[in-house]
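agent> step 3/5: call structure_predict on target 'Ig-like domain-containing protein' (Latimeria chalumnae).
agent> reason: downstream docking stage needs a structural representation; sequence fetched in step 2, passing through unchanged.
tool.input:
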Amino acid sequence: NVTFSCALTTPKEVLQVTWQKKMQTHENVGTYSKKYGAMITENFKDHFSFTELGLWNSSITLHGATLQDDACYICLFNTYPEGSVMNEICFHVYVCAEPKLEYKTGSKQLIATCFATGKPTPHISWNTNKGRVWKNETKTSNGTANVLSKLVLNETD
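tool.output (status=ok):
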């Protein structure tokens, strides 16, 4: 869980506080006003809750963050008569790489293969200046990257 907080430091007449997720377009997460209270939009109802209700201070909590929550979030104080005052909070979700190492030996050759998935893209290196190294990186639709690296050592290396 992670809590995003926003505070308006100059006195203004605030009518409403709006939280948005910044994507290609800004998607409303929720709003708070004295007149209507706190409301989380349908798409975010099971994932967010208000943890501080106020017109000059506002906090929302993201429950059970996933890779899809990696984004910037905007806190908008809708003031009268000046208009909106905003702040942007960027949240990044990382996936720790858990490398898998396999090796095969035979016919005077060693082939070591290392595979890792993570975010940011894992870096695989071999602590040798012998042999041939082959590497392939692919990005996945969920924002992680797969890295496959092979080290081929011949008896003559």
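agent> step 4/5: record observation. The chain is about 0% helix and 60% strand.
agent> proceeding.
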